[in-house]
Amino acid sequence: MSLTHESAVNGAVPGTGGSSGAGPAFELKAAAFTLPVIRLLRLDMDAVAAELRPKVQQAPGFFQHTPVVIELSALPSLEEDVGFPQLVGLLRGLGMIPVGVRGGGGAQHESAKAMELAILADTVRPDPAAGESEIKGGLPVTGQTSEPQVGIETGSHLIDRPVRSGQRVYAAGGDLTVLAPVNSGAELMADGNIHVYAPMRGRAMAGLHGNTNARIFCADLQAELVSIAGHYRVSDKIPATLKGHRIQIFLDHEVLRIEPL
After folding, report:
1. 33-44 burial, b for 16+ CB within 10 Å, e for fewer?
2. C-alpha angle 78/82/85, rounded to 5°?
3. If 190 and its partner were Cys, which of 45, 61, 77, 171 is the partner (CB 3.0–4.6 Å)?
């Protein structure tokens, strides 16, 4: 289901008439989200920890508070004990939020449920072309293997290809410059400034490590979310008069400001 086509269930129960004309108190929506996937290739938690920790230390902002899915379908045995307490503890200790598992056998699912992990629909092997991000022994990557894989870059970084839905790009310790369109569902992150010289329809987060002097510059603002040092604004809170125009985004005494250039 596309993010632009959501089904909603209002808080009012049919036939009850709601609450004294005040309207429903909530909406329950179904929407699609792209989540990073950690695909386990073997059940060696010490090896997983040894390989994953350096990647997180290289770019902690990329992983902090990131929900992740644990993929089990590549394991040699789908009945062997995964060791979810140790794995979940490792991921949470590194700042990630494990939310569910995919693939695996019945016993593994029961162990996952005991750790309050959701059991997600078992599909064919993850297809990066579908916009899903995988975390393997190397850096998080997205996109078709025939094209440059976008992930973490150390220092300032320039991208001259479109950033597709589901891709996440992080310039650790520097600025990020994008010369091509950024699609809805894509995510740009930088410890410094972000410059987008094309339509910006995804999410842009500058000053990821608390740099309040960071700025976002867009040639065509259509963003789903913009953020400076944790201060953010979503699309419906961005004035319509600023959308589709050249703008800059910055903090002024902890107030996020969006102004035309």
Report:
1. ebebbbbbeebe
2. 150
3. 171
Q: Mark 196-226 as b/e (b = at least 16 C-beta within 10 Å).
A: bbbbbbbbbbbbbeebeebbbbbbbbbbbeb
**Lowest mean per-residue pLDDT among 30-44, 71-85, 158-172, 189-203:** 30-44
Token pair listed for 83: 């060791």
Tokens of residue 148, six digits: 């440059």
CA distances to 200, 225, 242 from 219, in Å: 8, 16, 11
* Distance between CA atoms of residues 2 and 4, nearest Å: 5
- DSSP code of residue 130: G
Contacts for 126 with CB less than 8 Å, ≥ 6 apart: 37, 39, 71, 132, 134
Q: Tens digit of pLDDT for each residue in 161-214?
A: 999 887 888 888 889 999 999 998 888 888 899 999 999 998 898 988 788 899
Q: Phi and psi for 194 in degrees, rounded to 5?
A: -125, 130
Q: pTM for this one?
A: 0.52
Alpha carbons 195 and 177: distance in angstroms, whole number: 5
Give the number of other Cβ atoms within 10 Å of residue 98's Cβ.
Answer: 22
